[in-house]
Amino acid sequence: MNIHIISVVPELLESPFSHSIMKRASEKGLLHITLHNLRKWAVNEHGMVDDYQFGGGAGMVMMCEPLVNAIEELNNKHSFDEIIYLTPDGEKFNQSIANNLSLKKSILFICGHYKGIDQRIRDHFITREISIGDYVLSGGELAAAVIVDAIGRLIPGVLNDETSALFDSFQDNLLAPPVYTRPEEFRTWKVPSVLLSGDHKKIEEWRYDQAVERTKEKRPDLLDND
Are 112 and 87 in contact (CB under 8 A)? Predict the structure, then answer.
C-alpha cells in the first residue's frame, strides 16, 4: 500500500511512522508512507499557503492554489484510489472504514489546519471526508497517524500473527474478550481455568461469551448497530 500525506507540519508525523508496527510494515515493503510539505507548492517565496477568509471572521484558511497544485501533481504520478480530507465534520472513523481502506492500493490524505481548507477543494477533489471523533484538533496530522496505523496493521503480512487483527475490538461489532498471560496465579488472582484446559472449542466459546458480555456492559450501542 502507498500512502501520501500533505501537511503544513509534516514533522509531526515522522515519529509515529518510525517505530513499532508501522516501521516494520515499511521495512517489509508492505506499506510506503510519503510525507509532503504543502509549502513546496506555496504561492510565493515566503511559503504562503493560507489567507484570511472571505466575509471576515477569525482564523486563516488553507488556500486553493497550493492544494490544487499539490493534489494534481501527486495524483498524476500515483493515481490515488481515495483522496481523503481529515476534518471534524467528516464521517466518524470506525473499524469498518479501516477494513475498507486497508484494501486500497494508494491513498492521499490532506491534513487540515487553521480554520480548514477552501471549500472548493472539498467540492472538486476530495473523495472522502473522515473524522476521528467529535472534538477539534490543531490539525489533521494526529488524525492521519491514527488512521494510517489502524489500516496499516490490517495489511496481510504486517502483523506477525496475521489472524490477530481479525479478533481485535470492533471486528463484528464486539469488544475484545479479556486476555491473560503468565503466571497462572498472582496475588491469589487466578487465570480462568477454561484458558488452561487445552479445549480450543470451549476456549473460543468462552471468549465469544466474554466479548458479548463486555460489549453489553461497556458499549451496548455496538450491539444495537449489529
Answer: yes
Whether residue 183 is preceded by a cis peptide bond, meaning omega within 30 degrees of 0, is: yes
CB 41 within 8 A of CB 146: no
Task: State how many domains the chain has.
Answer: 2
> Do 218 and 115 reside in the same domain of the chain?
no
Residue pLDDT, tens place only, 102-141: 999 999 999 999 899 999 999 999 999 999 999 999 999 9
Same domain, 25 and 73: yes
Is residue 22 a contact partner of residue 126, using CB atoms and an 8 Å limit? no
Number of H helices, E strands in the chain: 7, 9
pTM of the complete model: 0.89
- Please answer whether residues 131 and 91 qualify as being in contact, where contact means their C-beta atoms are separated by less than 8 angstroms: yes
**Is 11 in the same domain as 85?**
yes
What domain range includes position 182? 169-224
Whole-number pLDDT of residue 70: 98
What proportions of the chain, in percent to the nearest 5, are helix, strand and coil? 40, 20, 40
| Structure confidence by residue, pLDDT tens digits, 203-212 | 999 999 999 9
Q: How does strand 60-62 pair with strand 50-52?
A: antiparallel
Residue with C-alpha cell 496481510? 156
Does residue 164 form part of some domain? no
Specify the CATH number for the domain of residue 174.
1.10.1270.20
